[in-house]
Design brief:
mainly alpha; Single alpha-helices involved in coiled-coils or other helix-helix interfaces; two-stranded antiparallel sheet; 7 helices
């Protein structure tokens, strides 16, 4: 999102009106008459510009498509982007603030899950499973919550279903967080292995003992 300053059209219309009014009520047969007209019009424009400065609007700038060099990964990243945008739109339709907050958090974690592919393409199969099985159900629940909330009717089925969806969102959020954490399992194992190998080498060199590094002279 970028902020763009939109100028008000009122100063322009004011300048035109000032020009017309002057021409109707004042003479225009000498050069200094035209100078006065121009100065008056400019003065009107400046005053109205100060009174009506316009407003700032947020404009969404389309992101450049990600190109990782792997068509499968790029396609999955595009799916993730569309899903995140869809969840954000549904979130804006929900009037209940606590539910909106849950959707915000779920959307945030979802975005991080897909973006993990940018640094770890090897997580493709896990993220693909997430995209194919877990995410569609979550989006379906959000659509149902929005549909029931704007149905204009009330009853046990409607209110009960909305309450169950609300409760399910908390469970979904925790599950998504655990899923995201699981994407780092292989990296965590690699680090543990690296640390173990390093400790072995340091012990062989006599640099590690009693839990402290020794400086070999």
């Amino acid at each position: 999102m970028i902020e763009i300053k939109k100028k008000s059209t009122i100063p322009v219309y004011g300048l035109a009106v000032a020009w017309v009014v002057y021409c109707v009520f004042f003479p225009l047969y000498k050069s200094w008459h035209f100078i006065v007209l121009a100065c008056s019009a400019v003065l009107v424009y400046i005053v109205l510009s100060a009174l009506f400065p316009g407003k700032s609007v947020q404009v969404e700038v389309p992101e450049e498509p990600v190109n990782t060099g792997d068509d499968k990964v790029d396609s999955l990243l595009s799916e993730g982007k569309r899903a995140v945008e869809e969840m954000r739109k549904l979130r804006n339709l929900i009037p209940d603030e606590p539910v909106r907050q849950k959707v915000d958090e779920i959307t945030f974690v979802t975005d991080k899950i897909f973006k993990k592919l940018l640094t770890d393409p090897g997580a493709y199969s896990q993220v693909k499973r997430f995209s194919d099985f877990y995410l569609p159900t979550t989006i379906k629940l959000l659509y149902t919550y929005d549909s029931f909330g704007h149905s204009g009717a009330s009853g046990e089925n409607i209110s009960g279903t909305m309450e169950r969806i609300d409760s399910a969102l908390a469970t979904i959020l925790e599950s998504y967080k655990k899923f995201f954490d699981s994407l780092f399992a292989s990296q965590a194992l690699d680090i543990e292995t690296d640390i173990s190998v390093l400790e072995t080498l340091l012990k062989q060199e006599g640099l590690l003992g009693s839990g402290e590094l020794k400086v070999k002279s």
